[in-house]
Amino acid sequence: MKQTVASDILRVFNSQDLAHAEMELSKLVEKYQKSVPELARCMETNLPEGLIIFSLPAKVRTRLRTSNMCETLNGIIKRRTKVEGVFPNSDSLLRLVTGVIIEISDEWEIGKTYLNLNTK
Description:
Blueprint: H1 2-13, H2 18-33, H3 37-50, H4 58-64, H5 68-84, H6 90-110
Helix pairs in contact: 1-2, 2-3, 5-6
């Protein structure tokens, strides 16, 4: 049943706009109301919070659907900590990781724009 529920939820978030997503969600809640009422109640309570994504432009929504940003960040941190090898204490590890994250944050702020929220 996991796969069916997952594909049903995916259909909600693949909707073209907020109105269609809300319509799909209501159909989904209705579908599971009799067979799995706890799931229907959970969907009705929690899924609308995720629909805030429809307030963003379609291009941005597409980018946010992937985990590429997180995977890239984790890869960079892993690569930089591997070079160092052994850390004398947890504070030194924390300083290195914090420095890496600050460096990446600066790049994202002044460098290439990954998410362009301007709707011009």
